Amino acid sequence: MPLRVGVVGGGQLARMMIAPAVELGVEVRVLAEEDGMSASLAATAVGDYRDADTVLAFAKGVDVVTFDHEHVPQEVLSALVDAGVAVRPGPDALRIAQDKLVMRTRLTELGMPQPDWAAVHDSAELQEFLDAHGGRAVVKTPRGGYDGKGVRVVSAGTEAEDWFATLAEDARGGALLVEELVDFRRELAQQVARRPSGQVRAYPVVETVQRGGVCAEVIAPAPHASERLLEVAERIGVAIAEGLGVTGMLAVELFETTDERLLVNELAMRPHNSGHWSQDGAVTSQFEQHVRAVLDLPLGDPSPRATWAVMVNILGGPAEGTLDERFPAALAAYPGAKVHTYGKAPRPGRKVGHVNTVGDDLDDVAYEARAAASHFLD
Amino acid sequence: MPLRVGVVGGGQLARMMIAPAVELGVEVRVLAEEDGMSASLAATAVGDYRDADTVLAFAKGVDVVTFDHEHVPQEVLSALVDAGVAVRPGPDALRIAQDKLVMRTRLTELGMPQPDWAAVHDSAELQEFLDAHGGRAVVKTPRGGYDGKGVRVVSAGTEAEDWFATLAEDARGGALLVEELVDFRRELAQQVARRPSGQVRAYPVVETVQRGGVCAEVIAPAPHASERLLEVAERIGVAIAEGLGVTGMLAVELFETTDERLLVNELAMRPHNSGHWSQDGAVTSQFEQHVRAVLDLPLGDPSPRATWAVMVNILGGPAEGTLDERFPAALAAYPGAKVHTYGKAPRPGRKVGHVNTVGDDLDDVAYEARAAASHFLD
């Protein structure tokens, strides 16, 4: 009987765990939200991840439960742990990824460099923060935001009244997170894998290019990165993985400020878009590494296979037709580009695939990835 | 709806098509011989590939039918073609891979370099061939042989009487193939991919090391290969792929003789053990290339990703326990080795997995692959 990993969630991250698991010889089972999702090939169950009984039944058939996303409620996670299921990352770590105020608090306790931040309960408190930070700031809903959702730049305390009103309706009450508007040069991401038994391996820090709050492109490693930058980023990633007891892959989104500091922006405790380059650019991809880590198997070598790797997302896809209709032109033009699609229907802004390229000349590598990806758009 | 490839046969070659298909965004469906086979993750049907109705029903759900092995009977292949199914490679090409006498005849027509050979119908004819070739020769059953089975070195016409007797019982009658015993320096393999629309891409020729008639190790590209050797091998591979109208992957097993000629030993019209290195050592693996080729998609770049790649088969596996019990020690010792296992139970001599390594120093690369593979043996 092979080792069996259970993934809650049937999206593209679960899908992309299938290939390395099959290659290694690990069985992947997926609890998908509905039929026909990205990871449907490995879906052995379809059901609601918010229902403890559904997730407990799914967990019975696997050695460890891990996740395609961070939205599984704490009650469900606790029920799994109480039933003796190995849950990786565990509920305590996931809580931090689920709530940005908890995250900021814990990172402060760990002494990690962050933007100035505060928990604000009403417009007056928000205005107070604005007054102390040059009149503009970023407001975030602590839960449920992703890809630019639940994030708003404001210049008056009154500009988040709708969110305060929603909070007031929520039985849990609570606050919004407000952060200083960081004057950053660029955004970076540091990925680290950690096993329950403690082994940690860090990937080289990468540059992420966002458009409209969504990751558009990743360059690995980050260009013009000094030894010091690489070291500091890795130290931050490892300190967070260890400090928060993360198991599996951790992505730390970072701002590189114009005064050359690194500040932690967001965390993700799963494979992450900033690491898709590793499928074709690293000895061990983030997806293989995540599978190894959650099974507490020795981690693989995260070293790059080439000088440069570039990942370009296919955002939206063609207005008409399917992605695979674009294969002939894209594959003919760029035989060295690695095209990945997720089995999702095209829709404006949706992440439906990505292209990876590797090589020695960054201009060429980036051009090839962008050009190949553009074949899947209009 | 994604493109859909149907693979007849549920063995490890079908299994290894799953990962690149999932990554590209192609759906793989497998008709497996039984439950629990290597490719069971993608098995949508279980049944007998010798039964036309079973295979026809399976073919209804896919865009193209291809194969994990060459054993599908011609009657079944014809029924598929008659029903309008795209079958790749097609029946005419597969017939040549299914029968070694047909293969020798067709290669002779194509002017390919081969060992001296003859079709012999009885012990007297075999003795005649022996007398003309130094008293020793290789006798092969035209059908059904693989991994050293159906192959025998003889030095007397009487040493194949059991096979002649079996032939006599077979309603089809027929002959045995006898070939001169080639004085070879080493064995090589040339792989070529060909699309129905004609595009051809060749991999670099590799050295294959056999033990007991079974492939034990592959070095890519073949060490000490002159430009001329590389060119001649590629020319032979391309000529056979085009001459026989192969679609998908073709492997040409070659002898390099002590007098520096290349002679064709065997053909395989599918992904082949000699190309497993390409999963981690080439820009486009043979499995991705096969999927592209049979779908008539543009072929990928077959170039190596590193100076050297070495593949070592895991033959047999541990006498007790499962392969995955050996993961911790193997993965810890060789974090850069890529371990592939097939979900098969260990059994003496059985191919249950392989290890790929890549790098700049051949000694190191070969040592690492052998050492990692040895962790899965006793």
From TrEMBL, chains A, B:
Residues 104-295 form the ATP-grasp domain. InterPro entries: ATP-grasp (IPR011761), ATP-grasp_carboxylate-amine (IPR003135), ATP_grasp_subdomain_1 (IPR013815), PreATP-grasp_dom_sf (IPR016185), PurK (IPR005875), PurK_C (IPR040686), PurT/PurK_preATP-grasp (IPR054350), Rudment_hybrid_motif (IPR011054). This is N5-carboxyaminoimidazole ribonucleotide synthase. Catalyzes the ATP-dependent conversion of 5-aminoimidazole ribonucleotide (AIR) and HCO(3)(-) to N5-carboxyaminoimidazole ribonucleotide (N5-CAIR). SUPFAM superfamilies: Glutathione synthetase ATP-binding domain-like, PreATP-grasp domain, Rudiment single hybrid motif. It catalyses: 5-amino-1-(5-phospho-beta-D-ribosyl)imidazole + hydrogencarbonate + ATP = 5-carboxyamino-1-(5-phospho-D-ribosyl)imidazole + ADP + phosphate + 2 H(+). ATP binds at residues 100, 140, 179-182, 187, 265-266. It comes from the Bacteria. Keywords: ATP-binding, Ligase, Nucleotide-binding, Purine biosynthesis. PROSITE patterns: ATP_GRASP (PS50975). Homodimer. Its EC number is 6.3.4.18. PANTHER family: PHOSPHORIBOSYLAMINOIMIDAZOLE CARBOXYLASE (PTHR11609:SF5), PURINE BIOSYNTHESIS PROTEIN 6/7, PUR6/7 (PTHR11609). Pfam families: ATP-grasp, PurK_C, RS_preATP-grasp-like. It comes from Microbacterium alkaliflavum.
